[in-house]
């Protein structure tokens, strides 16, 4: 199992869903100077700011989750993964629907580019914006969302992925019915009363953790808050309290 998530900060990844590095930096400047929260850089910001800026984030002490959802032929994904592994980010994502050969090629690329702290690979199962109707009628995948997530999680195990990205509805079920070997990373997190936006399978932080999530990805609930640091700290405190209850 990867060491990702071994620090308390990495229990919560803040999704930096901004259009430019300037916006992201202004947001991060709201944190105390000595605090380096774990952050997720997605496609929009990565395409705008580029790999050098991501490397600068890493050098500044931020744990970085690079969420690019790679999906292509195995050779292309392997080369892309190898390039990303040299940035020093903690993890990146690829679509499990790309198949076992694609994921294995990415695994081999990371192993070749081995470092003191290898980049973890997270396989995206079904997006939290996907429900059964969309999956069946538009994408053409039969069965329930849970059935699809189970199949993709099994592929992830076979390809030696470090974890999966899934909704909170599937995190605990994966651990009890599929495997305990995969880290479960859960996006689609909303605080009580928040607008779900374009998400279909959403959950509160506390519910996601109780249902088996190892890590949460929280975006708008923090980034659009009037006091994002306070919201972030409140979510952290919920996790600490749950750990006390489990003891």
From TrEMBL:
Pathway: Pyrimidine metabolism; UMP biosynthesis via de novo pathway; UMP from orotate: step 2/2
UniProt-recorded Gene Ontology molecular function terms: orotidine-5'-phosphate decarboxylase activity
One term under GO cellular component: cytosol
Reactions the enzyme catalyzes: orotidine 5'-phosphate + H(+) = UMP + CO2
Keyword check for Lyase: yes
InterPro entries found in the cross-reference section: Aldolase_TIM, OMPdecase, OMPdecase_AS, OMPdecase_bac, OMPdeCOase_dom, RibuloseP-bd_barrel
Keyword Transferase attributed: no
Domain Orotidine 5'-phosphate decarboxylase: 11-235
Keywords: Decarboxylase, Lyase, Pyrimidine biosynthesis
EC number: 4.1.1.23
GO BP terms, alphabetized: 'de novo' pyrimidine nucleobase biosynthetic process; 'de novo' UMP biosynthetic process
Positions in coiled-coil regions: none
Active-site residue list: 67, 69, 72
Pfam family, one: OMPdecase
Enzyme class: lyase
Residues reported to bind substrate: 17, 40, 67-76, 128, 190, 199, 219-220
Subunit: Homodimer.
HAMAP family membership: OMPdecase_type1_B
Function: Catalyzes the decarboxylation of orotidine 5'-monophosphate (OMP) to uridine 5'-monophosphate (UMP).
Record PANTHER family: OROTIDINE 5'-PHOSPHATE DECARBOXYLASE
Family the entry assigns: Belongs to the OMP decarboxylase family. Type 1 subfamily.
Name of the protein described by the UniProt record: Orotidine 5'-phosphate decarboxylase
Source organism per UniProt: Desmospora activa DSM 45169
């Amino acid at each position: 199992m990867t060491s990702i998530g071994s620090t308390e900060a990495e229990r919560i990844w803040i999704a930096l869903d901004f259009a430019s590095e300037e916006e992201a930096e202004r947001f991060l400047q709201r944190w105390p100077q000595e605090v380096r929260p774990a952050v997720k850089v997605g496609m929009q910001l990565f395409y705008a700011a580029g790999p050098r800026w991501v490397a600068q984030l890493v050098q500044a002490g931020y744990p970085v989750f690079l969420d690019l959802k790679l999906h292509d032929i195995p050779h292309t994904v392997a080369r892309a993964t190898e390039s990303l592994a040299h940035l020093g980010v903690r993890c990146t994502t690829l679509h499990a629907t790309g198949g076992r050969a694609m994921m294995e090629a990415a695994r081999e690329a990371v192993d070749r580019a081995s470092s003191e702290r290898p980049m973890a690979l997270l396989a995206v199962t079904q997006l939290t914006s996907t429900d059964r109707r969309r999956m069946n009628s538009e994408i053409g995948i039969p069965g329930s969302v849970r059935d699809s997530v189970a199949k993709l999680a099994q592929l992830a195990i076979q390809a030696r992925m470090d974890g999966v990205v899934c909704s909170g509805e599937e995190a605990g079920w994966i651990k009890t019915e599929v495997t305990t070997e995969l880290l479960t990373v859960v996006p689609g997190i909303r605080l009580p009363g928040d607008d779900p936006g374009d998400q279909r399978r959403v959950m509160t932080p506390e519910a996601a953790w109780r249902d088996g999530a190892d890590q949460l990805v929280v975006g708008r609930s923090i980034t659009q808050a009037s006091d994002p640091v306070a919201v972030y700290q409140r979510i952290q405190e919920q996790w600490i309290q749950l750990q006390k209850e489990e003891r």
